[in-house]
Write a structure and sequence with these properties.
33% strand; alpha+beta; 27% helix; 7-stranded antiparallel β-sheet; 7 strands; 6 helices; 215 residues; single chain
Length: 215
């Protein structure tokens, strides 16, 4: 708890998995917002090669964006408050919620195994939840979790992890990666429109800087 009486309430970043059969398949609100986040953008050129004449400025779509960040998970406060879930399982539920973003649903796996046993020739791969990366009101992005690295750092008497650092790599899914009717497609377009508006609002700053230059 903050010792500052009028400290603003911070918005927590989060990963939220949405599934039609289970509207909140995985929800992980960051206990502590990471201090840094790395974003890598790679342009998607329309030309078949970088040097193709007349195609240097053509874009086939939005850039490929990769987000990497580290998240800390700690059960110390919950254990001090004798939270029953933390006492029984430590931070295992939070880790499980993160990891389930990479797993197909077990019911679907079992159903596919039954279909295979019955001789079904073609079985479609299971579909995971749509995952949203939420980082403040201007960044609600559909993403694919491409890697999770977990460093468990402390355990309780039952060997439940009670402290861990998790490194996440996320690939932003644009409107080119999703079906026409997908809510994620609309979310990405809204994000791009908001980004365009913010870029226009930066014009005043740039004009002020340029007016101070001496040629």
């Amino acid at each position: 708890m903050s010792s500052v009486p009028f400290a603003p309430r911070l918005i927590r970043g989060a990963l939220v998995g949405l599934d039609p059969a289970n509207p909140l398949a995985s929800v992980v609100a960051f206990q502590y917002n990471p201090d840094t986040m790395t974003r890598r953008l790679e342009p998607q050129g329309a030309g078949s090669s970088a040097g193709e004449k007349g195609e240097a400025y053509r874009l086939a779509g939005p850039p490929k964006e990769t987000i990497t960040l580290g998240v800390e998970i700690d059960a110390t406060d919950a254990l001090e408050e004798a939270n029953p879930l933390a006492v029984a399982t430590g931070i295992t539920p939070t880790l499980a919620a993160l990891e389930m973003m990479l797993y197909p649903k077990s019911l679907v796996v079992i159903a596919n195994m039954a279909l295979a046993a019955l001789g079904t020739i073609e079985i479609l791969p299971a579909t995971g939840p749509m995952i949203l990366f939420i980082w403040g009101p201007t960044r609600v992005l559909p993403v694919r979790v491409t890697s999770i690295s977990i460093a468990e750092e402390a355990y309780d008497a039952l060997l439940n992890p009670i402290r861990a650092k998790v490194d996440l790599t996320l690939e932003v899914l644009t409107y080119r990666d999703q079906p026409l009717t997908s809510p994620g497609r609309a979310l990405f377009l809204a994000h791009q429109i908001a980004k365009e508006a913010l870029a226009v609002s930066n014009l005043a700053n740039d004009l002020g800087i340029l007016s101070g230059l001496k040629l």
